[in-house]
Amino acid sequence: MTNPSTPTPGGDPTTEAHLETGRLGRASLVSLSLASFFPAVGIALVPLLVFSTAGTNAWQASLLSTIAVVCVGRAVTAFARRYVATGSLYSYIGEVFGPWARYLTAAALLAGFIAAIGALAAVVGIFAGSFLLSHGVDNALSFGPQLAIFLIALALAAAIAYRGLDTSVWIAVTLAVLSFPLVLVITIASAAKTGLDLADQFSLSEFSLSGTLQGMAVGAAFLVGFESCTALAAETRNPRRNVPLAVMSVPVLLGGLFPLVTILQVPGLQAASAELEAGMSAPAALALHAGLGSGVATASDLVLAVATFAALIGFINYGARFAMTLAGDGILPAPLGKIHPRHHSPFVSIAVMSIAGFVLVAALVFTAGDVVSAYYTVAPLVVYLWVLPYVLITIGAIVLTVRADEYRPFLIGTSVFGAVATAWMYINGVINPPPSPANAMSWVVLIVLVVLLAVFAITKRRAPSAAVEVAPQPAAVEEV
């Protein structure tokens, strides 16, 4: 079978097209991984969302969500240090559980990447629409203008991904860096204006276990998919060292930042409750209460739209390489595995994943009636789709350790906690369902998995044996 990072000798340029081994250095991979999780948007929204469920003790829920994702990350790195692959968790899980787990993981992550791309497009639409609305475009949040925003954002992000990883990293990281300072300034200004009210925030008198656990699930949602950079392992220099570092950078650096900014923002969010209830975005409301003026409040919407666009570039790259890997294994059509001979990018998968994300978000906006409702519908779906792979990878890390006859109690303990906390995200959605239509997503995810498994079975049965040889094959190389 053809390794995606090895050109075939002779033949035409199409068959020689390949992913470039060792293209990304450590700094580039870590930077893209962080940029893909829109730090500015997380700082702007995580405190509000966790505060809305956990109250003044929101920082505790945020800290628990960070710990839970760090524990899952520890399990992922146990595999990333041993194997180099382009299939993310799909490739890792197969090394422990075999084909049945690989197919389940493939179905969950393929749908998860499409849902994530659609969700990010919706967030771009929300902030870009809010910015246009403040500048007199009264229908900026309606279906027609939103459709145009989705189309432009996804087409530009796909074009950047098509140009290759160097272009993607440079643009995504630049946009993320440019968008970060304004949200940080708003957060600090709000804390300076209102104070921290630590006595109230650290008091256990208003502690609620159910609220804290719900807040944990909400906070973890902004870190789901943190391991997606593992799909770039074959294109990374020294992947067994650099990929684990990039994987842990998101939950450790960003996840560690979220409880801190939650402490800084909660007093301001309490003071701005009237503006928030009227529909104003959290950073805009905090900016006004901090005395930064309406200009800064309006600019924050544009900045957050730009930050989300940077994340969109990252996830199109990740999702396309994942689809390419499935095509190489023969469970998706072989053309999805084609790689551009000049840019060394999986251009067919980039186009297909972008179109699928567009169709999903457009259908949700049309059905839900507005882009905000559409986002609150697709966001739980993204979380639920990642639950099964996370549970499998944490259990798999324990199995991997036992098979290797290694005594690693810390890894086993963190894996157990990660599995339980991740499973809770789905259980919480069933016990404490969000408003309709998002409440149906806990059941929709099961239907999606069944449908995709059926598609995989049909594609695998019909695919000729030569199709797998033409398409790129993920290289799961065991460490010697």
Automatic annotation (TrEMBL):
GO molecular function: transmembrane transporter activity
Tagged with keyword Membrane: yes
Gene Ontology terms: cellular component: plasma membrane
Localization: Cell membrane
Transmembrane portions of the chain: 29-52, 58-80, 101-131, 143-162, 169-192, 212-233, 245-266, 286-316, 347-369, 381-402, 409-427, 439-458
Its membrane topology: Multi-pass membrane protein
UniProt KW keywords: Cell membrane, Membrane, Transmembrane, Transmembrane helix
Protein name: Amino acid transporter
